[in-house]
Amino acid sequence: xxxxxxxxxxxxGLRPRSDQASAVAAPPYDVLSSAEAKVRAAGxxxxxxxxxxxxxxxxxxxxxxxxEVYAKSxxxxxxxxxxxxxxxxxxxxxxxxxxxxxxxxxxxLIAAASVADYDSNRIRKHEFTHPDKEDDRVRQIEALNAQxxxxxxxxxxxxxxxxxxxxxxxxxxVADVTADDGIRHTVWLIDNTQxxxxxxxxxxxxxxxxxxxxxxxxxxxxxxxxxxxxxGRPDSAEYFLAVIFPARQMRIMDYNRVIRDLNGHSVGDFLxxxxxxxxxxxxxxxxxxxxxxxxxxxxxxxxxHLSIRPELVPAQDPVRRLDVSLLSExxxxxxxxxxxxxxxxxxxxxxxxxxLAELERRVSSGEMAVAFAMYPTQMAELMSVADAGEVMPxxxxxxxxxxxxxxxxxxxx
Length: 413
Fold this sequence. Notes:
Blueprint: E1 8-9, E2 13-16, H1 21-24, H2 34-41, H3 49-52, H4 67-82, E3 86-88, E4 94-101, E5 104-114, H5 115-119, E6 123-124, H6 131-144, E7 146-147, E8 151-155, H7 159-167, E9 175-178, E10 184-190, H8 193-204, E11 209-213, H9 215-228, E12 239-246, E13 252-253, E14 255-259, H10 267-275, E15 278-283, E16 294-299, E17 302-308, H11 323-332, E18 347-351, H12 356-364, E19 370-373, H13 379-387, E20 398-399, E21 409-411
Parallel strand pairs: 6-11, 8-12
Antiparallel strand pairs: 1-5, 2-3, 2-21, 4-5, 4-10, 5-12, 7-21, 8-11, 9-10, 13-20, 14-18, 14-19, 15-17, 16-17, 16-19
Helix pairs in contact: 4-6, 6-9, 7-8
């Protein structure tokens, strides 16, 4: 592939027959444990969990990364194709994809995104990846000869892109699924030549796309493409499966923190130490922060509103200005002795979708000593970090709603 390859392109998607979409669609492979996936897939032979987490069909004693797991995944995919549950579109298409969660709606584009543009950082990253997780995705792609878990991408706001994709949602969908969690997933086929050309043209004007979720999937796709490059194999591996939404429609929820102990401090001493870095105000009700630089804190049966002292907020640094960084640098590390969020067993992170009541529960139960409610990281902050070539601290973003697996897959011919 060359640097002039298009940023995105249509592809011949592998997808469920419309009447089987509900039976196939499944949560993303990385949001369920194997035990949870086994329960969710029970009595559902067409569930995509049999492909994305094939260990559920093998003895529990088997290592989840054993070669047999990837082989079983490929076998299960072949079975769904042979049974006519999954079908391949006859010609390259785009797909419009709408997610509805309560009062929130976002509509984006399913497309094949360029590995070359990922490698050159036109498709920008904001997280480190772990080699073992990359290895897992590489083995899965190679076993299936397909990418089945879409990478969640974001494009800068474009009224024209939104208009073109919205036009595709006026006809009958090829999939319309309301999942167990109440989230509605609707997919429309875009196979009109003019519509495809217009979408490709407007997307080509994008200076950058941004990875919101799926760093390991995109890194694995890059590795597969590099391994196949120059071997005379078809170039479909030079693109990876992606769903692209406009930045303004993305919903990032808070990603809260709970800590097991007060690092030897009494409650009073801890409040004094926090007060040296924040304005502390007691609250009679749970505190959900309404702006950056503020936190809710649940401690010893009481809620507090915290505001970081302005002089402690760096003026320019896009990473250190993040609320997750401010909390780490001003409280977690100096007061609680937690410097490594990835490895320290004293801290856990709780997705905002669980609500503030979950923070209260974990502290009141005695499992944890203190909880911090965060203001959600904003898309503009994520894009600024990526533009600076930096990475976000661990557990900075929690995107909702989640994409479904199985609605459209990208076969590497």
